[in-house]
Amino acid sequence: MRNLAILLVIPWIASSQAASANEAAPIALENQTLRLEIQKSPSPFLDRLIHKASGRSVIAQPQHKSLFSITLVKEDGSPETIDSVRAGESSASVEKTEGGSKATVRYAKFSGLDLAAEVTVVCDKENPLTIWSIGIENRTGRRIKAVRFPQFLAVPTIGDGNDDCLVLPALPGTLIENPAANWPNGQSVTLSYPGNLSAQFLAYQDREAGVYLAGMDTASSPMSLAVYKQAEGLRCWHEFTPVADSQEHWESPYPVALGVTQGAWCNSADQYKRWAEKQSWCARKLVDRDDIPTWWKNGPAVHVVEVRTYDNTRTCTGSYYPKLADHLRMLREKIDGPVVPMLAGWENHRRWTGGDYFPVFDADNARQVISQLKQEGLRPFFFLSGFFFTYRNEGRDGGVVPAAEEHLGAYVVADKTGKPKEYVLNESNPAGDWKRHSYQFCPAAAETRRFFTGLIDQAHALGVDVLQMDQTVGGAGDVCFSTGHGHAPGPGLYQSRSFFDLLDAMRSHGKSLSPDFVLFHEEPHEQLIPYLDGFHVREYYEKRWYRAYPGAVGIPLFSYLYHEYAIGYGGDSAGLSKQNDRWLVRCHAMNLVAGRTPGAAIWSSHASVADAHPDQIAVLRKHSRLLKTRARDFLMLGRMLHPYELAVPKLAIGVGVEKGGKWVREDLPTPAVLTSSWQSTDGRIGHLFINIAETRQPLTVGLDARNTPAAKSYDVEIYRSIQGEAFQPLWQNVQIPKAFTAELEPLEVVFLELRSAG
Question: Is-above-0.85 flag for pTM?
Fold first, then answer.
């Protein structure tokens, strides 16, 4: 009997062990591109993400085990963050669906808090990405300030790490090279909307594998994406900013995509673009937008020039209007192309004094000169200082602006004071103090629209129909705590939607006064595309602002995503100088290869146009002349394709970098030949090359259709800026790829057009 009892117990033990092992085993979701595993203990977290094509795990048994974090606001106003690992009870299960599988993960019994959460993950066989959503039961009585979801810890390096990179949509685009080597532990990047997030994804990848995270918001909700380096790897997350009035039951307002990627940065951009092109901001391409005037689609050069003169302490000494027309004629002749002059310092008070703009500086001369410029086809251009209304200028040319008191009811209200929020712009330097003290309009206030359409009336009466909403780089209004503007106090969709409505009203009003009216915005955002005629884009920036992170280099990411939908100009920092400054040559060449209009800024250095180094003028002239040919179909209206990675020498080009309050020059390795590739709206392929070196450079490249389906054969024509500046036949009825070899002269521009034969 004893032996029989033992025999009966053995299968029971085996069954019990199997059940226990099954409970501890992770649940898995799988499609053709990835396998994702969620570990159940201590509470469910993202344990492994496998890139199937390479077999690599880009998430692999991380030490950080929180799938989400909820930030609650305590009674005293301080935040408390609740991580998913604090759940006392949790479960995870997976079920088959018609299209694939779906995981449901539940969390409850957070110590001392009546809080619960449910996560769903959908894995469709036809979708390479997994789709994530979260719902929260919040009976704590506290407001939810933020929800980080999903969050995960990626591996420290993918392979050996040398070709690892972070792809970041930081305004025009940023690439962080080899973050394992270039970032110290504790380094982070947070990209927010409103803020410096111009598209809703990030990627951590090398050429063989990577992880991809993207919001799928279509309502312009407040959000952020972030990366934080720690010893164990790169922690990445998406963060919601809840805006619902009732937060007892909160659900994510849009899903988040998580998947794998590989290749160059543009491969991850392709994955995002497939989703983005289905959204409202891509409803019409530039070629179909008859609301944007032809003169702007032709790509004129934007020239930033001050209408004030200054002494060596930066104090205003007089007006440049009497010399402005001759100045602009000279520039137009030098670059052999149309010019749009942005008249800096045009405001009633000193430069960047927002709100009380009229009457403009030196009004009598301004009216006469602007009328003359328009007759000559030169369209003057004003920057508006965004939503700012200045109430006091401090330092040089300072003073009080009483008109600011007339709009107190329309300004953004601060949370703690209940009064208009105060903003300070500090551009003080060793020459003296310079501070601007301002309020800021709330876009939802009824008075705001009347004020800005009134500005358009006044500018039009002066002869100016080109305006920019400057200093609204975040792409929305600030958070406002007013109870009188028609929105709930605090962050909300009104920040973006009211801004869109305002831009729409401004454009409609301006175009009712003149069909040539255009409205621009400082820095790009995908959501703003339908409401504007173009963006001010600084493709040439390096080692500053959104490209100041360790290991950061610029990539034309926004141009790659949206070039055929939105025009960009590169103006205020692509300068002119009498010095042989190769950085400035590079700036102008970057505008060319990124598909931006020409741009030249001299601000108050008025002699710089007459004295400009010939190489800087040469690039501007070649850019302007190229846009007079059918290359315009590509560079102004076309789709950017994957760029070539040329085997050419690297130049050590010096760039100014601010360190410890001082400006120093650092070398930026730059290819001697810059390049980009394009597809026109009728399917032609274009390849652009410019030699920015001071010596001849050999070029050998295999001409192909890049990331588009190739035709059976092509007729190829070539444009060389040293050979008559017109397209000439090169080959007929050739198959690709086909090797092209040339010796490029210094500053030579080459454009190759491939047209399907027959």
Answer: yes
